[in-house]
TrEMBL record:
Signal peptide: none annotated. It comes from the Eukaryota. SUPFAM superfamilies: HLH, helix-loop-helix DNA-binding domain. InterPro entries: HLH_DNA-bd_sf, TF_AMS/ICE1/BHLH6-like. The keyword Transcription applies. Its main location: nucleus. It is found in: Nucleus. One of its GO terms (molecular function) is DNA-binding transcription factor activity. PANTHER family: TRANSCRIPTION FACTOR BHLH35, TRANSCRIPTION FACTOR SCREAM2-RELATED. GO terms for cellular component: nucleus. This is BHLH domain-containing protein. Keywords: Nucleus, Transcription, Transcription regulation. The lineage of its organism: Eukaryota, Viridiplantae, Streptophyta, Embryophyta, Tracheophyta.
Length: 179
């Protein structure tokens, strides 16, 4: 008899936990699904079903729309690549180099004008191309009157085991941006 009563207690204890878990899940649905006016479980589940059906239909419609236009998007992408490769994204206005610390450590200040997207990346690639170990680099707008003019300041160390003068570093950098 004691085993039956303990077995009975076990199963009756699981119902409140199940109810609490179900209520928690319903509260979650209520917070996620818009425009649920009634808070009874059936209304919440029906609104959730309708909401998911609308999302599914919209997803299918958008996927079909995308499939019907790949040629157009491909042409735009090719045109963008052609334009970006034929036109420089920035104009170098001034380069200053100052030796700091050791024989191969410099601060490089590059004043440049942004002519298109990707200009900052182009400056960074040029710095890395010059075989420099970049310790830190920052970009700022020196004047709010000229928001397209940027200044990159980089603290660098020459990777090669040779000494380099400030002028040599400046010339090396400018060679990456022929006029």
């Amino acid at each position: 008899m004691s085993s039956a009563s303990s077995n009975n207690n076990c199963s009756s204890n699981s119902f409140p936990d199940d109810d609490e878990e179900l209520n928690e899940q319903l509260r979650t649905l209520l917070s996620l699904v818009p425009d649920v006016a009634q808070t009874d479980p059936i209304s919440i589940l029906e609104k959730t079903r309708d909401y998911l059906r609308r999302i599914h239909e919209e997803t299918e419609r958008l996927e079909q729309e995308i499939r019907s236009q790949p040629h157009h998007l491909e042409n735009l992408n090719q045109r963008s690549i052609a334009n970006s490769s034929s036109r420089r994204q920035l104009q170098i206005l001034r380069v200053e180099t100052d030796k700091i610390g050791g024989k191969r450590e410099f601060v490089v200040k590059i004043l440049w004008k942004r002519l298109g997207p990707g200009a900052a990346a182009e400056v960074q690639r040029a710095i890395e191309f010059c075989h420099l170990n970049v310790k830190s680099s920052s970009i700022l707008v020196p004047s709010f009157l000229h928001p397209d003019e940027m200044q990159t300041t980089a603290f660098v160390k020459v990777k090669k085991k040779k000494n380099m003068t400030e002028k040599e570093l400046c010339d090396l950098f400018l060679s990456r941006f022929p006029s």
